[in-house]
């Protein structure tokens, strides 16, 4: 049974969707006009049904609540999940015959600076068992698709269902982020931390990081199907801090990679630069 032509997305705050994100959604409709868009908000999902989600919503940490809801949406209905700041460059029709698909999330400067290789064996497997942050590497959480009821999704959901977002000391459970958790749950299916397409058990595929890409000139190519723009709305609600975080001048000073804007990605500037 192929993955159904549904695109799920979350918007939990109740605020109007900003124009930049509306631009992203329009690329979904332009590239995949025959796909149904399914909004997951507080009317669609009972946020109080899962303690982790309820607690994240209570303190308005919407992105962390969505880490569970996206898994639930795919497990319950099947389809494709996209963060609202994803630009689609090509139709996903080629991926619909898999049981589950996503891509390796690769942040080159983080992986290089944090000496990620020290945590891995030569084949990309972890040297130690358990859930470990592998700096710069994980499974792309912003773009994924699955058949209804896929067992990998059930594994991921079960992890969250044992967690609390607000810890006993009042701090938030943010140390392990979704790409790390999703990667840890995929290890039993054969996942390794390598920058190549991997075909796993249960008809899963983890694509190379340039196929479903994070926002990086080093990753984007003619082969890119979608780009997570990495607006990072979960990091701060302060407009000035948000602007500074995305300032390429400041990123250059700090030794970080420049980010493309939504408009640059939509216009295909990264492809033009490679010609």
From TrEMBL:
Give the CC-aspect GO terms.
membrane
> What's a single GO BP term from this record?
mannosyl-inositol phosphorylceramide biosynthetic process
> What does the UniProt keyword field contain?
Glycosyltransferase, Transferase
Tagged with keyword Glycosyltransferase: yes
GO MF term (any one): mannosyltransferase activity
Q: What is this protein called?
A: Mannosyltransferase OCH1 and related enzymes
* Source organism of the structure: Candidatus Termititenax persephonae
Lineage, broadest ranks: Bacteria, Bacillati, Candidatus Margulisiibacteriota, Candidatus Termititenacia, Candidatus Termititenacales
